[in-house]
TrEMBL record:
Residues 1-27 form the signal peptide. It comes from the Bacteria. It comes from Marinifilum breve. This is Lipoprotein. Residues 100-127 form a coiled coil. The keyword Coiled coil applies. Keywords: Coiled coil, Signal.
Length: 198
């Protein structure tokens, strides 16, 4: 009988102790991140669906202004600049690796020629970009915010570069399309890995 009373007493103390500990813990957890000065915000037109991959160059940007159209223009300009930087970097990597892997007589001249021609193509192709996401909001300060994501096909760019390079009289003899295409595809794989954070 005494043993049963002791067991009941210990069981009761255990339940009280457990209830007390869990209430202490939940009081600490109840402090939200908002109370700590943090607030989760949603940034439109970003995330995995809006990052470059092996088939597409993609860039996102935000523009803010008291004027709705100015907000849109700012976002578009910022996204175009980001896209141009990604493309230029990838094409430069392709040229460097392609030229270094070939046995050409005057490497510097060939590289300069490649760079000049591809720059022309990139500028032309930047007219062929597609808006894949666009959202507008109005802030508490009555400003317009535009979120935008742009995309350009890597295949279209590669084909346009090939067409330009294969028509150039100075490069025609030494230019190997299959080798250039393979090098370009490798650079696109690297870009995808960088964008995905691998």
């Amino acid at each position: 009988m005494k043993t049963r009373k002791l067991q009941s007493l210990f069981l009761g103390l255990g339940v009280l102790l457990a209830a007390g500990l869990s209430s202490c813990g939940s009081a600490e957890k109840a402090v939200s991140t908002k109370a700590q000065g943090e607030e989760l915000i949603e940034v439109y037109c970003t995330g995995p669906d809006y990052q470059s991959d092996k088939n597409h160059f993609r860039a996102s940007a935000i523009g803010e202004s008291l004027d709705q159209m100015v907000s849109k223009k700012k976002a578009g300009t910022n996204a175009r600049a980001e896209l141009a930087t990604l493309i230029q970097s990838t094409v430069q990597g392709t040229i460097d690796n392609y030229v270094n892997s070939t046995e050409l007589n005057n490497v510097e001249q060939v590289e300069e020629r490649f760079e000049g021609l591809t720059r022309e193509v990139i500028n032309q192709q930047l007219n062929n970009i597609k808006v894949i996401c666009e959202k507008q909001t109005r802030t508490a300060q009555n400003k317009y915010k535009t979120y935008i994501a742009l995309e350009m096909s890597a295949k279209d760019l590669e084909e346009a570069i090939n067409q330009k390079l294969s028509q150039d009289d100075k490069l025609k003899v030494d230019y190997d399309y299959e080798k250039f295409k393979k090098t370009f595809e490798e650079e696109m794989q690297k870009l995808q890995a960088q964008q995905r954070g691998f």
